[in-house]
Amino acid sequence: MNLLREKRSVTYAIVFGIWAEVFVYCLLHDQYLIRISPEHFTEYHPPLWGIENLSLLAAAWAFRASIGPGLVLGLVALFLARAGRLPKVPVGILLKLVPCLVVVTEGVGLVAGAWVWMNGRPLYPDAVYPDFSMPMLISQTIQLTCYATGALVSLVFLGWIVQRRFALRSGTPECSSP
Fold first, then answer.
1. Residue 164: which pLDDT band, with cuts at 50, 70 and 90?
2. CA 8, CA 57: separation in Å to the nearest integer?
């Protein structure tokens, strides 16, 4: 039994399309984080490929950080959206929803960072901060919040895919997005 009867182009569009969207998000995210707290990348991350230019270093970390989450989200979305006998969720819908996840993730992260900036104290337990300078408190808070929020909105997205397929099967009119 072949669970995934799909053209390679569709498979690649979903998996690598979602990864590419996650990578672009990580790239933009790390570009501003490295400007808030360069030490976040230069002192508290291991050296990466001998890169010393801050913009390139942020880009390299974004690439590295996006591979696992982006490809895993793409693969899981592919199977949940296209495998089996239920009606398939169109590729375009999947790729259009990922930027919504990104906006929510980054928005929540920025709100958390703004809270730290306005209150002058850490949001999370002291043990998660490598130092207590304001730039590090802000960048680490944003980063941790984005990790947690990204995981949560990804699970909502995957749940929406399953719900959407069952709704398509039962003939329910257009479902709302996640």
1. very high
2. 33
